[in-house]
Every structure is written in C-alpha cells, then in structure tokens.
Description:
The protein has 17 helices and no strands. It is an all-alpha fold and about 400 residues long. Helix 6 packs antiparallel against helix 7 and helix 14 packs antiparallel against helix 15. The longest helix has about 40 residues. The chain is globular. It starts with 5 loop residues before the first helix and ends with a helix.
Amino acid sequence: MAASRAPHTLALALCLITFAVNLQAPLYTAYAELSGRGATATAIAFSGYVLGVVPVLLLLGGLADRVGRRPLILLALCLSMAATLLMLCAPNLETLGLARLLMGIGTALASATGTAYMSELMQAADNRRAANWVTASTSLGFGLGAALTSAFLLRGPSLTPGSFYLHLLLAAVALVIVWRLPDPRPALKSPLLRLPFYPAGSLPYGLSILLAWACVGLVIALLPSILKQHGLASWSGFSTFCVISCGLLFQPLARRMTPVRATSLGLLILPCSYALLAWGANHGELTAMLVGTVAASSACYGFIYLGGLSAVTQLAGHEKTRASAGFFLLAYLGFSLPVIFTGVLADRLGAAMALLLFGVALAISCLVVGMALLRSDARLRAPALAALK
C-alpha cells in the first residue's frame, strides 16, 4: 500500500470502529419495551461499554508494544462487527449490554494504539497532526452511526435497519485494506500493566471531562425515551450525532486557547447548554433540543476535551501515557455512573425530575471544578515563569 494512503486507511478503520458504538442508540427505547424494562435497565446496558473499556485501559496499556499496532486495529474491527451481528440476531436489551461490552473492548484497543500508529504511518515528528486525525475520525464515527440509523428509521420502524448491514459491509472492506497496512514499529517486551497516573494539578481537568461525558452519556442513553413521548423518537440519533460530532467544529478554536481557558469556557457552556437541551426534550421543542446538543458538544468534545488533555499532558512530564490513561478513566466513569443514577431517578421520580436534579448537580459541580481550575492554573504557569527567570 502506498505510504500516502496509509493514514487515510487507518482513519477509515477508526471511524468504522466507533461507528458501531452508537449505531443502536435510536433503538434503545424499543429494546427496553421489548424486554419490559425501564430507564435503569437501559442505562445499565448502555454502561456495558465502559465495562469493556476500563479494564483494557487499566491493565493492557503495553499490549500494542508487544503485539504491534495493526493486529489491535484488526481485532477492534472484528469486535465491532461481532457486536453488530449480535444486535441483528437478537435485538433486545440483554444483547445490547453484551454488544456494548464488545464495542468497549474494541474501542479501548483502538484508543490504545490509534494515535501512535497514525504518527508512525505519517512519519511525523509532531504527534499533534496524528492526534487531530484520530480525534476527527473517531468523533465522526461516534455520531455518524446513530444519525445514519435514525435516517433509515425515517422510512419506517425496524429492529434491523439498513445501517447495521452497511456497517458490516464497510467494516469487512476495512478489514481487507487494513490487513495490507505496514506495521513499522517492532514488537517490544514492555510490561502489560500500566496503572494510571494523576500528576499534581491534573485532577480538575479529569473531573471536567467526567462532567462533560456524563452529559453526553445522558443524551445517548436516556433522551430517546423522552423524545418518544413527544413523537420525536426518530430524531434521537441526530441528537447523538450533534452532541458528539459537532464538537469538531470548535476544536480549531480550542487549540488557540490556553488549556485552563479552554476548559473553563467549556465548564461555563456545559450547564447552560444542558439546560436548553433538557428543556427542549421535556417540552418537545426540537430546535431548542438540537441547539442545546450542539452547544454541549462544543464543551464536551471541543473545549474541555482538548483543553483538559493538553493540560494533563503538560503536567505529566515523562508519564504522559499513564496520565492520559488516568484522564480517560475519569471520562468513562462519567460516561456510566451518573447515567445509571439518573436512570434510577427517572424510573422513580419521572424523567422531568431526573433531568432537573441532574442539571442542578451538574451546575454545582461545574462551579466547584471551575474554582479548582483557577488554583491548578498556577501549577501550569510555574514552569514557564521559572524558565523566564
């Protein structure tokens, strides 16, 4: 394969791996109804993804160095196809939990090697360009799968929409062309176990991404059932696309800002955008809901994501890999635990009250974490000031 096409091939593979993750999101309510379950069970099945992600991030950080980059990408593609096949064969809530577990493992494997592999294929000394490609392709995939399923469902209700078959076809093609990719880095005997690391001053940035991804998880897992009450269930996939992929539009601006300013701006936008999307969902106001999800995406996948990761990398010194693992560990905890808790509240108190309580907790948490960011900024400034003296 020509070296110039190799990065595009890897970007396609990463996009298709994450494409499968939210492919079923518009059908969550249908799965719950078929299984006779409520919001709590839906949130638990949704969080099966995190059960796959976290152990890989915690325990297998050195796997890519041992077996190479390409095998992990191929395995991740196979796991994404297996998850889609499961949902075609047995479309219910129990299968969804297992499918999301497989997708979590696949996404974690791809995350563990994606940026490093892209950098090696680009033969670039600066990892930022490779990271931008990986961020763009994965963010697009996370949102595109849900949006495409919603588009197919506009033609009529189905538990096996055409988007599932399209993913299987494209992923099979990707398997063939990824098999031909070079794997330039030789296998190394590095330790598999690499525990996460939180450098001094990094915790507020980790808590910021926890809050941001809790908001995203809520939109993906619980919003479809609320939208269905207003006859807007077919728009749930588009809301997922907006809350994830639209953050790409704001990443260029986030790169021009300091980490603390970008993260602080995201924390300011987050509760305001959540209030708008929650109000829109509760009142069946589609425009308000979609505008709110786009604004939330600017915070979650634009300012907080890039600002927080940049700060953690800067604070980590020579422990960048472990510090990044710690950052994403908090992110995925936010993606699961608050969603489950809010699902329990929705079953007991009703969806409107659950969204309100989550919003209040989110606003207070953003304020507390924002104040902590001001203190951690002094740690980021200290090395620069010392260098000027």
